[in-house]
Amino acid sequence: xxxxxxxxxxxxxxxxxxxxxxxxxxxxxxxxxxxxxxxxxxxxxxxxxxxxxxxxxxxxxxxxxxxxxxxxxxxxxxxxxxxxxxxxxxxxxxxxxxxxxxxxxxxxxxxxxxxxxxxxxxxxxxxxxxxxxxxxxxxxxxxxxxxxxxxxxxxxxxxxxxxxxxxxxxxxxxxxxxxxxxxxxxxxxxxxxxxxxxxxxxxxxxxxxxxxxxxxxxxxxxxxxxxxxxxxxxxxxxxxxxxxxxxxxxxxxxxxxxxxxxxxxxxxxxxxxxxxxxxxxxxxxxxxxxxxxxxxxxxxxxxxxxxxxxxxxxxxxxxxxx
Length: 322
Hints:
It catalyses: Cleaves type-1 transmembrane domains using a catalytic dyad composed of serine and histidine that are contributed by different transmembrane domains. Serine protease involved in intramembrane proteolysis. The chain is mainly alpha-helical. It is built from eleven helices and four strands. The protein has one domain. The strands form two sheets. It has a two-stranded antiparallel sheet. A two-stranded parallel ribbon has the order 3-4.
């Protein structure tokens, strides 16, 4: 198999590192320290306000919702912690040229968070997989294929059930990485006949996927993005990944799956965007995919979602990482 130069993964990884360093610099300017306390960000990183100002997915900056003011998050307008009475207009929080009175429409916040990480632990964890696995996948499958899968999975992950995030800022490339993980599973299945001990490899991979999704059930981890990225990774992988053809019947099946995946990918993108912008129906059970209701550790998320529907001034909590 021809080996490709992994230009995309090199660029994305270096860019994400540069962005993270810039986050720390901005936090130092805003709060006189590159890192906030563990009570604000347990991932060892900047404040939620700095993450929002740099392009985190933050629903109030993307579409108009029930309020036009919030308590200023740390790092914005001199606010140092969550115990504040400072009130910010949405343009002061969202930035990016938004003016007072403007309706929020920062749709690009479904793209920019892919390149932002909420802390040192977060970026080390994500980039360890990205460098170890993503670079090899790009060498095997090619830059264009991996770039499309990576970006499509990341964007879809951020749109998927975004309404359930309330005013929780979310950042990270895990949706993209779950898309790559889905492609690894797909490649294993498509190359089943050529692999020594395929059942062993399948069980090992399914365990890794299940364990990773299980971690996503912890508070302040955006498991919706993981699930969405994995779904889109399967669909785009069926369309883009090269596959070995074993027979004419195998060729027909793979062509049918490819055509179905194209329509499903487009249809799902249309559906999730329509759900986000136009639907008022709230999924009653979806929160179980994002946080296990054990004890009261999901209470902050549940309270946050409820709060956004009944008040006009509210406070963003710690950032989601994914």
